[in-house]
Amino acid sequence: QVQVVESGGGLVQAGGSLRLSCAASGSIFSIQRMAWHRQAPGKQRELVAALISGGSTNYADSVKGRFTISRANAKNTVYLQMNSLEPEDTAVYYCNVLATGPGVTYDYWGQGTRVTVSS
Fold first, then answer.
1. How do the pLDDT tens digits run along the chain, 119 residues long?
2. What's the rounded Cα separation, in Å, for the pair 103 and 65?
């Protein structure tokens, strides 16, 4: 069974920083992408940052230059460094792992970690 566990959320003042961690464990085949999404109250879940297996990254326009996604040496762990946080970044942040096996695609999600940015 695969588990995806996020950590690192919390309360921070505007302008501050947080680092989120995501660890995936269990029988995972080939990871193609690890990504962070977020969902603010009353809004749809949106992609924040993604790290593709070849090393390329994608970011939402709203976080470019402020957030950085990276992968640990333990390759099933990914981080999201969030700097210059704004109240608009307040949301539950979810880690998503996209993996492939023989003829099948797996889409795993964590339970989320809450980030609250006060003004």
1. 889 999 999 999 999 999 999 999 988 888 999 999 999 999 999 999 999 988 899 999 999 999 999 998 767 999 999 999 999 999 999 999 999 988 999 999 999 999 999 99
2. 37
